[in-house]
Specification:
Elements (H helix, E strand, L loop, with lengths): L3 H9 L44 E10 L2 E10 L5 E7 L7 H12 L3 E5 L14 H7 L6 H17 L2 E11 L1 H12 L3 E7 L26 E6 L7 H16 L3 H5 L1 E5 L16 H17 L4
Parallel strand pairs: 3-4, 3-5, 5-6, 6-7, 7-8
Antiparallel strand pairs: 1-2, 2-4
Length: 303
């Protein structure tokens, strides 16, 4: 049985996502991270899906260790460069598939070492699911926030050992990853700025997810740019306004990160408007949001 919050996560991914998709594992991640598209995200809109060239980049899959567990991840970085700014790219609910890998390549083209860890690795393989409700119930709902925070800490450590500058770290995430972006910007002392794409801001506390972004607004350590859709069926603008009010209150009490945080709401955009491989994609907001993300990171000392 899905909780209310988990049901909201599923509904937030609609329209354009089938909860009973019949695609097989072969059409999902295939063999490795970042190859193909997640079966639960079908149908794929091939005519809009962006394919960023790896020319001039070093890309691939690797693992890093967290307390004896090997966390797989995809990375992309400019070839032959060191001391690079780092951006953690946090997956949608579907895990690390081709869209997330391509987003890493886009950041690498902009001069970043981009890392996308598979943050469900201990709970299951999202590529093996073709039904959204089962993916959420059997994998996503079992992922503890504390586990995710630790995995992201380890990703930064890997970056520092492989050409990244750990004093210049940013985080960005989409949907499920948008929420994680807010949380990590509250916890991590390493992150200088975050960009959260349509991440859920409120929710019911549980053992695995004890706090949500709204609960942590007063404790924010890095400024976050929130990019949201005015037609998002799963994230009401009332919750965006709640977060704005909470940040303003925290800023008035001296929290510089909260005071510096901002929202951009694209009034005609639905949920997942940056996901260029899905029917929810909206070219102008997606491109504007990515441009704003790069400018946000630069303005806050990442690039």
């Amino acid at each position: 049985m899905l909780t209310k919050d988990q049901t909201q996560d599923v509904s937030a991914l609609l329209p354009g996502v089938s909860t009973e998709a019949g695609a097989s594992r072969r059409t999902a991640l295939k063999v490795a991270l970042g190859v193909g598209y997640a079966a639960t995200a079908m149908p794929i809109m091939a005519q809009t899906a962006i394919k960023t060239s790896s020319e001039g980049l070093r890309t691939g899959e690797a693992i890093y260790d967290v307390a004896g567990f090997s966390v797989p991840f995809f990375f992309a970085m400019p070839e032959g460069k060191k001391n690079l700014p780092v951006v953690l790219v946090i997956q949608e609910i579907f895990g690390v598939h081709e869209y997330i890998a391509d987003t890493c390549r886009r950041f690498a083209k902009a001069g970043y070492l981009a890392i996308a860890p598979e943050l469900y690795a201990r709970q299951g393989d999202p590529a093996s699911y073709s039904q959204m409700a089962k993916l959420v119930a059997e994998v996503v709902s079992k992922v503890p926030d504390a586990q995710v925070m630790g995995d992201l800490d380890a990703a930064i450590q890997w970056a520092g050992e492989n050409g990244g500058n750990t004093k210049k770290v940013a985080i960005t995430g989409f949907c499920w990853g948008g929420r994680i972006t807010w949380l990590y910007a509250q916890q991590s002392k390493n992150v200088k700025a975050g960009v959260a794409w349509y991440g859920r801001l409120v929710g019911t506390a549980s053992e695995l997810t004890p706090k949500h972004p709204l609960d942590l607004a007063a404790q924010l350590k890095a400024p976050v740019l929130g990019l949201y859709g005015g037609q998002d069926g799963g994230i009401p603008l009332t919750t965006v306004n709640q977060m704005k009010d909470a940040l303003a209150e925290a800023g008035a009490k001296g929290n510089a990160a909260a005071k510096a945080s901002e929202f951009v709401v694209y009034k005609d955009a639905p949920h997942a408007f940056h996901a260029d491989y899905r029917p929810s994609y909206r070219k102008e907001p997606a491109e504007d949001g990515f441009t704003r993300a790069l400018a946000w990171f630069k303005a806050h000392g990442v690039a």
